[in-house]
Amino acid sequence: MPDGTSSRDRAVAPAHRRPSARVLIAVFLACWLVPLAAYAIQATWLLPPLILLGTASLLRSGRSLLDRLVLALALLAGLTCAAGLVFTVWPWGLHPVPVTGLTLTALALAAVLSQRAPRLPRPRWSDLVSVAAAALAAGYLATPYLRADGFGQRLNLAMIGEDNARHPALFDEIGRLGGYLFVDPDASREHIFSGLIHYPQGWHVVTALLDGFQSPGELPSGPALMNHYLFWSLATFAMLVLTLIWAAHHIAGPLHPLRRLVLTVAVTALVLGTELPRLLVAGYPSETFGLSLAAFVVALVARPLHRLREQLLLIGALLIGIGFSYYLFLLPTGAMVLCWLFADRRRLRARPGTVAIIGGPTAVLAPLIAVIGVLFAGQSEALAAPGGAPLGEIYNTVVGLGALVLAAILANANRGESTWRRYLGVLSVAVLFSATMAGVNLIKGSPPAYYFGKSAHLLILVLIVGTAALARLLPVPAPRADAEPRRRPITAALPTVAIAVLVTIAVVIGTGLFSWTGGYFHRSASNATWTKAWVHRDRTAITRSAAVTAAAARAYPAIAGTVTLVVDGNGEQSYRESVFLSAIQGTTAQTEPGIYFSVFEEPVRTAEVLRRTPRPLRLIVAGPAAQQAVDGVLAADPSLREGLTVVPLKPAKAR
Q1: Of 233, 250, 251, whose CA–CA distance to 289 is shortest?
Q2: How far apart are CA 368 and CA 381, in angstroms?
């Protein structure tokens, strides 16, 4: 079957007797008593794994335990984004007890209506290998943060990407307010920078919700806020790696263990070797989350699940999750789903009620955030935003991977399978989407830039999943005949094992994971990949901006009702330091007038800060040049002294 569901699961299940009323009452009471008990003994961190296992136990698609858990993760990720709307308007916000009680009640109701008893497959060694590969990849990328000595060094690493200031602010305020900010934009403007109110917030709701399970009622602030944010960013990247490994295995279908092992290593190496680690380094957790959900869509469109209801439910949840977290990918993934709907139209005609029940809410919720962002925040103008990776890096990655994948698909072993014909349709959509984004930039008079790079990330993801076609071409040991001597199969297997080892070594070297080679995907400016440059970064080389920001956060905590900004000798430094300090202190709404304007020359910027910012204002002066600029502005316009407090700062020396 398309998803490789085991014969036991496909067999007609015996009729289950409906549970008695007493049993039902006991189950539904347990749905609320369990989270209450966990809250009472401070063990709410156990509730998310319980929900994941409960969801997986009611699914029937997939062969292995990992299949069930990964599909349950995809389902919960998408549905949580939608449920965030409920959490925003009900009185309990993101508190773990009512959230868990509602979720367990829904699972119990689903079990009763579907007449399914909780059941999970036995774990396999291949499950452990896949999880270990994702964990090792994320752990490897986490080493700079783990080696960092104190908050100053961690902040210095985070300040590589400016978005590492904005996402913590969203993560923080969503956790405090208990849901989506766009539901009540007027109230949200009092708490956060107005430019973030209509930004897609699915990832932030999911991670703020999960973070609340760790220590209910204790919201992180200051350096702890940044630490929590960085943890969830790393966890999200681990999810991306695991999703890509699973998607490649799913599309490949049943594989010999040797092929499966090589494919796992190859996918992990390609994730680390290509530009994808830039998502973690530069601070793009929403895109990482959106790409993870898009990888599920790619896998389920190319190789649909045998159980149509589960396929439809997963596709609907994934599209909603993509729309709520990174709706740029909603157009290509939506097109992929339409291709699947057309290809499987005969199956769908047999379930018109299911299609309507799932398709209706999906059609309304999936584009909701995009519509709000375009109509109320003018976000369509951002498509021409500058920046992004050099085109040469993207071109090399796409052409190199694309040639290998297409050659493998056209091989006799794969050519006749419907899975690979469907995959070619998915790949065509991804290519067309990237070409369209490049065309938008060219029409607006600029070369392909920032959002073209985002579309290229999706294309790279599709190609990485497509390496499953290469794994299917690897030779495997022939099955042993009963009449053959027992030692002969070992000898016969040596050539195939040797080939697998050589292929694995070639992949590891080609992707640049060895320190003495930059690999095929190395960055244009150096002989190093994003991963290598990041992992081997000198954590002790703290920039001035990081030193100033860390010292300001330590020396001058936020004061309620007072705006705190940093002035440094350089306007861009002042901007960057103030952005990160306001995120750490949770004051992005108050500091907005004094940060977000496009003047960076000094002392002009300092003068604008003093004129634009409401009082009372505390100005942290980070050096003699900054003090001289402030003194000059105040001497020219003494009226700006009203409500102003100027304080000095002596940051640790930048290295």
Answers
A1: 233
A2: 18
Peptide bond into 495 cis (omega under 30): no
Rounded CA-CA distance 364/323 in Å is 11
Distance of alpha carbon 366 from alpha carbon 322, whole angstroms: 7
CA distance 293 to 319: 8
- Other CB atoms closer than 10 Å to residue 378's CB: what's the count? 10
Kindly state the average pLDDT of the residues 601-608: 92
Nearest to 609 by CA among 649, 582, 586: 582
pLDDT digits over 518-566, tens only? 788 888 777 888 999 999 988 888 899 999 999 999 999 999 999 999 9
Q: Is the pTM of this model over 0.85?
A: yes
In the Cβ-directed half-sphere of 287, how many Cα atoms lie within 13 Å? Answer: 21
Q: Which two tokens stand for residue 441?
A: 């930039």
Selection from 537, 520, 534 nearest residue 273 by Cα: 520
How confident is the model over 264-277, as pLDDT tens digits? 999 999 999 999 99
CA distances from 567 to 382, 409, 447, 605, 614 (A): 29, 58, 35, 9, 16
> What sign does the dihedral 640-646-651-653 (CA atoms) show?
positive
Phi and psi, residue 522, nearest 5°:
-65, 155
d(CA 378, CA 385): 13
Among the listed residues 72, 59, 128, 74, the one whose alpha carbon sits nearest the alpha carbon of residue 289: 74
State the DSSP string of 588-649: HHHHHHHH-SS--STTHHHHHHHHHSPSSEEEEE-SHHHHHHHHHHHHH-GGGGTTEEEEE-
Q: Model confidence over 132-146: pLDDT tens digits?
A: 999 999 999 999 999
Q: β-strands 617-621, 563-567: how paired?
A: parallel
pLDDT of residue 381: 66
3-state secondary structure of 150: coil
C-alpha distance across the termini of the chain, in Å: 60
